[in-house]
Amino acid sequence: MLKNFLGLFTNDLAIDLGTANTLVYARDRGIIINEPSVVAIHKNSQGEKRVIAVGQEAKNMLGRTPGSIQAIRPLKNGVIADFEVTQSMLRYFIQKSSERRTLIRPRIVICIPFGITQVEKRAVKESAQSAGAREVYLIEEPMAAALGAGLPIQEARGNMIIDIGGGTTEVAVISLGGVVYSNSVQVAGDKFDEAISNYIKRKYSLLIGERTAEQIKLLIGCAYPFEEEKRHEVKGRDFKNGAPKMIEVSSVEIQEALSEPVSIVIDTIKTALDRILPELSVDVIDNGIILAGGGSLLANLDILIKEKTNLPVALAEDPLTCVVRGSGKALQDLDLLRKIISV
Question: Which of 24, 166, 208, 251 could disulfide-pair with 236, CB 3.0 to 4.6 Å?
Fold first, then answer.
């Protein structure tokens, strides 16, 4: 009875506001939302905009909307590109997260890329406050990912985490509750999709949408060859005559298509290993590298990183939800939250 009564006064949330997906963790309930970061906007003849769909419903409209409707992603490379639309998206997810009417607005923890500017941080905070948050705390994604992966972040030893999201890849080494090294590159899951689209256009003169490219990546995409080659039928529009067309592509071809963005990710990891202090290098050799984020699910990426670095590499448990689960841990432990928030 008392717990139900107290529940009327709080509905604390942790939000992984990602370029590709937004995940929401509710205190005492776990992950309650996992939807694409897409918003569908209707624009009338007077230029007035109205949100008509958010999340999965809006993503289903990508590439299929009439001229008056636009399905957009309001975040680019992990930061807000469209403040007004991001605010609408956050309001939708916050309202959807409320399982019951609460007497006060929620306290919200939001994950942000490491190293974003104060202006960008302020934009995230103001968006959440305008969308209904009482208090807003920001946590850097590598720290949240490390927490979600169960790494001992407060110990005096280096732990390397690589968070490959939709817009950015972040490589970080964490020790004593802080990020001692971090580097990010704007190459991740979205660039993988773009590379596949460009390859198929260049080789087969076939135009495909981003949803089709993502499906190819998920079904036969790989960073390192499969033991047995895979094939997949792809439908699109012929670039030369505009007619519908179907082709078949192989996993070997998609690996070739992905080679350039994957190489950039590998180079970013190598740069990190070259620049960290010798003591931290020893820790990384002992502890290995942990991969998190949806982009790390690219088949055999862990095998390629292991081959290129000669270090043990492991995927975090459920990499796609790793960041929001880490934020959820901080939400449950206010002392920990105060130590790791980004100001």
Answer: 208
Across the chain, mean pLDDT equals: 89
Could you name the CATH architecture of 189-257? Alpha-Beta Complex (3.90)
2-34+78-143+322-340 CATH pick, 1.10.510.10, 2.50.20.10, 3.30.420.40, 3.60.150.10: 3.30.420.40
Output the pLDDT for position 82.
Answer: 86
User: Is-above-0.85 flag for pTM?
Assistant: yes
Per residue in 5-47, pLDDT tens?
Answer: 334 445 799 999 888 899 999 988 899 999 999 999 988 777 7
CATH 3.30.420.40 domain range(s) in the chain: 2-34+78-143+322-340, 157-187+259-316
3-state secondary structure the chain: CHHHHHHCCCCCEEEEECCCEEEEEECCCEEEEEEECCEEEEECCCCCEEEEEECHHHHCCCCCCCCCEEEECCEECCEECCHHHHHHHHHHHHHHHCCCCCCCCCEEEEEECCCCCHHHHHHHHHHHHHCCCCEEEEEEHHHHHHHHCCCCCCCCCCEEEEEECCCCEEEEEEECCEEEEEEEECCCHHHHHHHHHHHHHHHHCEECCHHHHHHHHHHHCECCCCCCCCEEEEEEEECCCCCEEEEEEEHHHHHHHHHHHHHHHHHHHHHHHHHCCHHHHHHHHHHCEEEECHHHHCECHHHHHHHHHCCCEEECCCHHHHHHHHHHHHHHCHHHHHHHECC
